Amino acid sequence: MAEPWTGYANMIINYVEPSIKDKYKLSLTNLLSDPDSYIAKPDMWITVENISDFIKGYVNDMISKMPKDKAALEKDAMKCDSITKQISQNVSMQAKQNKVPFIKADSVERDTSKDEVINISTVDADILKLVEKLVAEAHFVSDFSSDYEDYKIGEWLFSGAKNYVIRVNMQPNSVLDLEVGREEVLEMLTGIQNAMKKE
């Protein structure tokens, strides 16, 4: 049976599982997949908090030994931020000219498997022409850009008869994989910890 988390989280779990078993006498995999079986244990939420701190330190230590990957990630994020700013300004301008609502929604309920996704890693005249065409044909545009540290990573939904998504593509990077996995595991642990505090 597949675990209810991504491969990034699974990578982190596999890295830290032996140390957590040794230090806390429990399985992180079991805790994440069946937290209810741990709720009755006294002050378990404190143990979960300590496990979270351990994972943060463990991953930060791994990242500190990868300076080249970290520098490459920083450079790529800076490039993505620049592309995002250019596309965002263009979308905003085109939306005003075409009187198309340009929103920042929390989410848009839709069948994402039917979206036509366009991943970009550069911006040129043809990309800007594409943006112009997509805005003109859209009922609305929603900005789903995300933050990476101080940088914006662009993603826009052009909702119309057919949905299109333009996404600024970050290059594969080991540090980013570790950070994504760490944040997913920590988010799951925070949810478990909050549920335990209510018991």
Protein architecture, described:
- The chain is elongated and about 60 Å long.
- With 199 residues, it is an alpha/beta fold.
- The chain folds into two domains: 7-65 and 174-198, no CATH class; 68-168, no CATH class.
- Helices cover 58% and strands 14% of the residues.
- A hairpin with a 2-residue loop joins strand 4 and strand 5 (151-153).
- The chain has helices at 7-24, 28-33, 44-64, 67-98, 125-137, 174-198, and strands at 102-103, 116-120, 140-143, 146-148, 151-153, 155-159, 164-168.
- The chain starts with 6 loop residues before the first helix and ends with a helix.
- The strands form two sheets. The protein has a five-stranded mixed sheet with strand order 1-3-6-7-2, with helices on one face. It has a two-stranded antiparallel ribbon with strand order 4-5.
Kindly list the characteristics that best describe this protein.
199 residues; alpha/beta; 2 domains; two-stranded antiparallel sheet; 6 helices; 7 strands
> How far is the first residue's CA from the last residue's CA?
29 Å
Q: What's the SSE pattern?
A: HHHHEEHEEEEEH
Note the overall shape: elongated
Strand content: 5-15%
Question: Which sheet architecture does the biggest sheet show?
Answer: 5 strands, mixed
Counting DSSP H or I runs of 4 or more residues, the number of helices is 6
- Average the pLDDT over all residues and give the rounded result: 95
> What is the SS-derived class?
alpha/beta
Largest sheet strand order: 1-3-6-7-2
Tally of domains: 2
Detail the poorly predicted runs: none
User: Compute the gyration radius: what is it?
Assistant: 21 Å
Q: How many β-strand runs? A: 7
Helical residues, percent? 55-70%
